[in-house]
Amino acid sequence: MIDASTIYSEIYVEAGEKAKQLAERYGYLPYMVQRYLLILGHEETLKLLEAFERPLKPVVRANTSLVEPGKLRRRLEEMGFGLEEVPWYYGAFRVVSSPEHPTIGATHEYLKGLYYVHRDASALAPVLLLLHDYRGDVLDACAAPGGKATFAAQLLVGQGAVYANDVHLPRLRALVGHFVRMKLPNNVVTWADARRLPRSWGKRFARVVMDVPCSSEGTIMNDPSRKTKTTLKDLAVLAKREIELLRAGVDMLEPEGILAYITCSIAPEENEYVVSKVLESRKDVDVVEPPVKLFEWDRGLTSFHRLVFDDRVRRCVRIWPHRHQMFGFTFCLLTKVRW
To answer: Exactly one of 142, 214, 264, 332 is catalytic; which is it?
Structure first.
């Protein structure tokens, strides 16, 4: 098992003078800006940093088990909300303007469970791809507070159940609250460290969601504290846990099952690096192409700085704030191969 000190030595990057200057101007840890420069170059790094200065509007996802999306849109617009349709999913709308009151999370329609409020549309994509043409049970191993778990349950009403697990009890209470509020009956909620599930559960799944706790670096526009919260040593610790969680998630798969590994981070240390480490350590895992193209996302990185990743990680999906006008988001679909 790889330790955090080894990871730190592998991912270490020294910030140059240009990175330090930009970091001081925008308020970042220098290593983060150095990483952007290495991946994107100077001009595009400036576009990314500027995109992080513009907060994103929330996204409403209609609970299609209770309401038709067009009807929900009309009701919210009558209250004074300005909505724009998310072009690649018919049941979601970006809230571009709001009345003085109520807030989007305090309407009668929200309290009756007719919709879920996402911070951004990016979280919808991996669920849509994972469940494309699928009916059956799903494990969401790190499910709280419930955006992806309730979306999966909504899509599978009458056709499958969502086993929603999380280790953080206060967040788990929020998850249960969303299931109840949205009147979604097809769920089983459990409280456990996802790394222990393969040893404590006999059940295996054809679909697994593994939205791991991460640096949340891709959400800087809505949480500026992320500019300085995660040092490189912190990042190494996170990557170690993410590798452990991904390995456990693969162990929870049935043969030929598919897992969505997800982070709200653009850091290759938390994404392509983690997936490559798991691919290196076991022969029963592969990365698969998404089944449909929802929008023009970017592919995964096959190298970064001194690191060369498994070439299969190019099948991963990258969402950049300055290119896609969404949170920075990365996800990979992995399958368990029969041997």
So the answer is: 264
